[in-house]
């Protein structure tokens, strides 16, 4: 049979239109059973009732650069509350003319985080970069040297404070949680008992309790005239709380390791430290990446609870803006903006964890 005849037959025998393209995909995935068909129709009806009105409220009828009084006469969203108060929402009471310093500190932190995503950069130079970056961020926020005006920590607030509590809190809580998990698995009774008591005691109380204790109760035990910065106290409370939960997640990974892994390490003559560092922990931590990241994301969102001890984080500065009578009626727009910031941070952590899982996947 000639090629022309074969081509003619292929042209004549085409798949049905209903089994290819968008129509075919819809039939195979949305209308393949009666239940899926009903569920698809109900979903489309709900979307039709909600998406167009929301789009009209958020985009079509909205105002972006106006006064609060002008917004009261519109049916759409008043996004003007964001640009009109963006500097206070982001930086709180940090001196207005010096707000370039926390902005630059946030830029340095974001650059370091994105640079650290690539595992090819995980070497000594990355450690030096973080040390230099942390010093630069502390210098920019505090000042007092190199001609920078000193700014008291009581004036820190907004997004820099939220990022500081979350990033440094999670960075310190993770290794502490690993140590606690190893301690709970230890064969030394005293070490195991201390770790168990710590983990169960911290997990038995809400984070709000620890924040109140760090803010109100802890200063009562200090000598007269001695004070500890309230931000540092809140940071320690967040680290202690998150580490206890991370410890239980890591302990699950350690218990999932087979006895043969320990026997293999012992047959190679490895001591306890080498066994954990080279054999057990790399595998255990890889197994628990999903629950660990879920816990870290939860801890990131929990940092907003510092609002109850009068720390002006991102949520508190937003609430302060909404206490102004001019913008009091537009809380939905302000909280949507804050929610998008939290969503971006959480999505960054989630997407990086998925990428890390793929890179560490050995197919076993």
Can you characterise this structure?
The chain is mainly alpha-helical. It has two domains: 3-62, no CATH class; 81-94 and 151-360, MetI-like (MetI-like fold), CATH 1.10.3720.10. The chain contains 16 helices and no strands. It has helices at 3-12, 21-29, 34-60, 68-71, 81-91, 100-116, 124-142, 158-184, 189-203, 207-217, 230-255, 259-267, 272-287, 289-302, 314-322, 331-360. Helix 6 (100-116) packs antiparallel against helix 7, helix 8 packs across helix 11 and helix 10 runs antiparallel to helix 11. The longest helix is centred in the C-terminal third of the chain and has 30 residues, at 331-360. The chain is globular. The model has no long low-confidence stretch (mean pLDDT 84).
Topology (elements, then pairings):
Layout: H1 3-12, H2 21-29, H3 34-60, H4 68-71, H5 81-91, H6 100-116, H7 124-142, H8 158-184, H9 189-203, H10 207-217, H11 230-255, H12 259-267, H13 272-287, H14 289-302, H15 314-322, H16 331-360
Helix pairs in contact: 5-8, 5-15, 6-7, 8-9, 8-11, 8-14, 8-15, 9-11, 10-11, 11-13, 11-14, 12-13, 14-16, 15-16
């Amino acid at each position: 049979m000639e090629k022309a005849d074969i081509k003619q037959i292929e042209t004549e025998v085409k798949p049905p239109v209903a089994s290819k393209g968008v129509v075919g995909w819809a039939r195979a995935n949305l209308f393949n059973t009666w239940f899926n068909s009903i569920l698809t129709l109900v979903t489309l009806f709900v979307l039709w009732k909600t998406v167009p009105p929301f789009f009209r409220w958020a985009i079509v009828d909205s105002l972006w650069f106006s006064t609060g009084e002008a917004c009261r006469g519109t049916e759409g969203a008043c996004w003007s509350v964001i640009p009109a108060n963006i500097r206070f929402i982001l930086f709180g009471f940090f001196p207005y003319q010096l707000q370039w310093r926390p902005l630059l500190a946030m830029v340095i932190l974001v650059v370091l985080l994105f640079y650290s995503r690539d595992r090819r950069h995980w070497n000594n130079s990355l450690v030096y970069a973080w040390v230099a970056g942390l010093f630069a961020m502390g210098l920019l926020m505090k000042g007092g040297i190199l001609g920078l005006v000193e700014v008291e920590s009581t004036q820190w607030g907004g997004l820099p404070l939220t990022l500081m509590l979350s990033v440094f809190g999670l960075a310190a809580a993770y290794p502490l949680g690993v140590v606690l998990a190893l301690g709970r698995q230890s064969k030394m009774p005293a070490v195991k008992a201390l770790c168990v008591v710590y983990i169960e005691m911290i997990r038995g109380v809400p984070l709000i309790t620890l924040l109140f204790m760090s803010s109100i109760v802890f200063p009562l035990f200090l000598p007269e005239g001695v004070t500890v910065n309230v931000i540092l106290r809140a940071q320690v409370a967040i680290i202690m709380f998150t580490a206890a939960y991370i410890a239980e997640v890591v302990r699950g990974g350690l218990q999932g390791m087979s006895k043969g892994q320990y026997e293999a390490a012992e047959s190679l003559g490895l001591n306890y430290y080498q066994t954990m560092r080279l054999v057990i922990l790399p595998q255990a931590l890889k197994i628990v990446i999903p629950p660990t990241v879920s816990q870290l994301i939860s801890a990131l969102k929990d940092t907003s609870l510092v609002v109850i001890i009068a720390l002006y984080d991102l949520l508190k500065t937003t609430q302060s803006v909404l206490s102004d009578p001019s913008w009091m009626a537009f809380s939905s727009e302000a909280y949507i903006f804050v929610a998008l910031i939290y969503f971006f941070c959480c999505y960054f952590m989630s997407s990086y964890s998925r990428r890390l899982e793929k890179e560490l996947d050995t197919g076993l």
